[in-house]
Design goal:
P-loop_NTPase, Rossmann fold
Length: 186
């Protein structure tokens, strides 16, 4: 089974693309939507409840993280169901720790103005960017986030394009990665 991780800054289109890919018949999971997988944690890694209006101090002292056990369960369950690719869409402070679980990582890249416009849209399901100091924290973490994933070798896809075009770009990136995989010798 081929596992594709699609990440990006807040407002890059991850959840929208997960829904689009699922509607096209692909196995797509929005990791942010799974409360068993994603949680806010304090510096010791213990889960905490995010305040309704988190200030900058709270946001810099806490992280949005993945539960590795549940991530492994999602991947194993998908592998047991079929050999079709699994698409994971999301972002977490510890996501890079799990890079060995992904066959391909894609970074949805958007400019800061697009990010601001999208996160401030009230119809967006996620309130991050509209509550408390979350927008200022998202802007402050923009360049470090993009730089880190580029350094990790993520394939870059322009997330500012229309949803269908971006979804097609994701499919092409995955197809290219599959076709260029080297089989172990021996």
């Amino acid at each position: 089974m081929f596992v594709v991780f699609v990440t990006g800054v807040s407002g890059s289109g991850k959840s929208t693309l997960a829904r689009t890919m699922a509607s096209w018949g692909h196995r797509a999971v929005s990791t942010d939507a799974d409360p068993r997988l994603c949680y806010w944690s304090d510096s010791s890694g213990c889960p905490v409840q995010r305040p309704a209006e988190p200030d900058a101090s709270w946001l810099t002292m806490h992280e949005w993280r993945w539960n590795p056990r549940h991530l492994d369960e999602i991947i194993a369950d998908a592998a047991n169901q079929s050999d079709d690719p699994l698409w994971l869409f999301g972002q977490a402070a510890n996501a890079a720790e799990f890079a060995d679980r992904f066959d391909l990582t894609i970074l949805l890249e958007v400019d800061q103005q697009t990010m601001i416009t999208r996160v401030q849209n009230a119809s967006r399901g996620n309130d991050f960017g509209r509550v408390g100091d979350s927008l200022s924290i998202a802007l402050a973490s923009y360049m470090p986030f993009v730089t880190a994933w580029r350094r990790h070798g993520a394939v870059i896809v322009d997330g500012t394009l229309d949803v269908e075009t971006v979804a097609e770009e994701l499919l092409m990136a995955a197809a290219s990665a599959v076709l260029h995989r080297r089989k172990p010798s021996g």
